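Recall that a protein's primary structure is simply its ordered list of amino acids. Everything else, from secondary elements to tertiary packing, is in principle encoded there. The following example makes that idea concrete.
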Amino acid sequence: MSKKKKLVILTGAGISAESGLQTFRDGDGLWENHRVEDVATPEAFARDPELVLEFYNFRRKACATALPNAAHKGLAALETDFEVSIITQNIDDLHERAGSTQVHHLHGEIFKMRSVANEDVIYDIRADIKHGDLAEDGSQLRPHIVWFGEAVPMIYEVMPIVQSADIFVIIGTSLLVYPAAGLVDLVPTGHPVYVLDKKIPLLKRSPYLRTIEQTASEGIAELTESLKSLL
């Protein structure tokens, strides 16, 4: 049998929004009625850990009740014909629950928590994290989330994945958040790049760029057919 082509997919908040999860920053500059600076920075956690923990406890509950949509399921189905790696900016587990087997979370995972003193001390969590809950090293536990102003260590793991892509797909992201937005520049020259979004982000013009201006769940069938033409 011939070797499957490597399909690398970058997903953003747009794909999860269709499952009822709000995008990280709505048009009014708020994140589920909170200023980002008040709930998603190291400074916010130092200032008011109870508020930050409460905010992420709420988000964890929302992610737990959300269901994968047609786009999540369509990407999982592509594993039949391609070697698929999903790089997501989302902290939910909807890709995994849809059946995708290679998912890399750039910005962390809502169903994990870690020590504030050692980012390698990580635990699974489905319930709430409370102020006073401690890791085995005696430090306060916090969500395993990359907050604004923090490094994105996972970027170094996914860069070689993008560099080895035969096909690169971008779904549901504005490409405004770095370093994730810079991944498209690592795609090998001459390899197809697809963008599926209801509002196509600004990208360099290229004969290898193909766009589908629809929501993720609406455009997944067209994307699938187009990708299969490359087999």
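The longest strand covers residues 108-115. The two ends are 13 Å apart (CA to CA).
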